[in-house]
Amino acid sequence: MSGLQCLATENVWFDKQRYDDAEKCFYEGANGTAAKSSSHGAGDQELVSRMKGMELENQTLHKVVEEMRAALKKLELRVASLEKSPAAVTCAKAAPVKAAPVKPVKVENGDDDDSDIDLFGSDDDEEAERIKQERLDAYAAKKSKKPALIAKSSILLDVKPWDDETDMGKLEECVRSVQMDGLLWGASKLVPVGYGIKKLQINCVVEDDKVGTDILEEELTKFEDYVSEFPSDGICSY
């Protein structure tokens, strides 16, 4: 068989497109496998780096915990030592100081009545009396420096206007204009009474020895253009 005859019997050239497609699929599969393997390798590397970071963080946390435990132990020892030392100081302060006894001087001059004479007894008594008096004076001075208790009362006033046309803002301004030693104005609000009339309800704190309700009544009745009456709703002393 000649070469031309052999080529005539072979159909590879007629199926060239099919073989090209097979080759193309082969190379595409190979490239895809390599890409997948590279992506898997990158993911493994990222996982390893994250695990190393977590290990370092864990070691740091362990170190911090150990330092905190050491600091806590030192603090406990210090507190224990402080709890012991005040007791020792208190005991030392509470221990009374005993004065050395003074022995009487015996004078031998042949007289039995003057044989035992205490020459220093009177001086010791005077010194003890002087120390006692100094302590009493210091205590009295310390007690006199303490501030005296000031009695105060909280009063809730209901200030009523003449009618519904009264300027309540001006009324409150007049009430708060009353100023005196021992008087402190507080919060206020308008409370409906009826027929469109509102009363001013205002709180104040007074010192009982300086300000009384009669003084407030005398001062507030001066604003006769705005105030009709102001009965106190309640007094709370403290």
TrEMBL record:
Q: Does the keyword DNA damage apply?
A: no
Task: One Pfam family, please name it.
Answer: EF-1_beta_acid
GO cellular component, as recorded: cytosol; eukaryotic translation elongation factor 1 complex
Name the source's superkingdom.
Eukaryota
Q: Which InterPro entries match?
A: eEF-1beta-like_sf, EF-1_beta_acid_region_euk, EF1B_bsu/dsu, EF1B_bsu/dsu_GNE, Transl_elong_EF1B/ribsomal_bS6
Limits of the Translation elongation factor EF1B beta/delta subunit guanine nucleotide exchange domain = 152-230
GO terms (molecular function) for this protein are:
guanyl-nucleotide exchange factor activity; translation elongation factor activity
Spell out the family assignment given in the record's similarity comment: Belongs to the EF-1-beta/EF-1-delta family.
Q: What's the protein here called? A: Eukaryotic translation elongation factor 1 delta a (guanine nucleotide exchange protein)
Q: Which organism is it from?
A: Gasterosteus aculeatus aculeatus
